[in-house]
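Wait, mind explaining this?

_____
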Amino acid sequence: MRVFITGGTGLIGSAVVAELLTHGHTVLALTRSDASERVASAAGADTLRGGLADLDALRAGAAQADGVIHLAFANDFSSAEAVARAVAEESAAIAALGEALIGSDRPFVTVSGTPWAAGRASTEADPVPTDGPVGGRGRAVNGALALADRGVRSAAVRLPRTVHNEGQGGFAGLLTDIARRNGVSGYPGDGSQRWPAVHALDAAVLFRLALESAAPGTAWHAVADEGDAVRDIATVIGRRLGLPVEAVAEETYGPLGPIFAMDQPASSTHTRESLGWKPVHPSLLQDLENIQR
């Protein structure tokens, strides 16, 4: 299968590209700079120049492919306005890609986050949030899944709060960056809230499986660790960086503060049983041991 991918040179995307190529697919990667073009080409992908806001480039990429995987997102969480811009840009991109695939029966795999469920781990049957700082992402993905009724084999891979590799990535990576800046490895509240996690290489396998065999309109959980206490995550970060570990104000995390403070474990039982997905790479707490001072 020839697969058009956005975000193919990031931490997750580079793992997905390698997974696809290893299993006999070819890849056309959207690249927005000379640097990202070099990275994608070195990995073995063909490239198409354009950014996420270039809707004509997105349509052209989809037209050349047997399937599409969308991963790109402007990860700017510096302010509520920046988050809103990133969500709006991605929403328009998902709509454009989906429209280009209507009536083709080709697969379209999008990405969202695992939802929150009161008092328990969320499952694939729970709806993604459509309100709050990043609620627009949920609405956009729901729109893509609805295309199952219009001849698109759409599926959503829901990623946990941390997708990691070599101690980097996701919410845990943000905790690490903030700890380096502030001189304290902090956590909001009492730190007992739980975050799910997955290694990027395991997540990449699930993206391939969803592309190849997921039924139209379905959602899947790329969750290896159902929920690590944030205090435990901060403790490993503090030890690796040689910094004190303590509670900090929720405002430390800007517009993501309320999300950081939530208990949000997630399950992937249905995904494992239905798609045969089996995570095999290091857990988050193990992988954080790779953090360097």
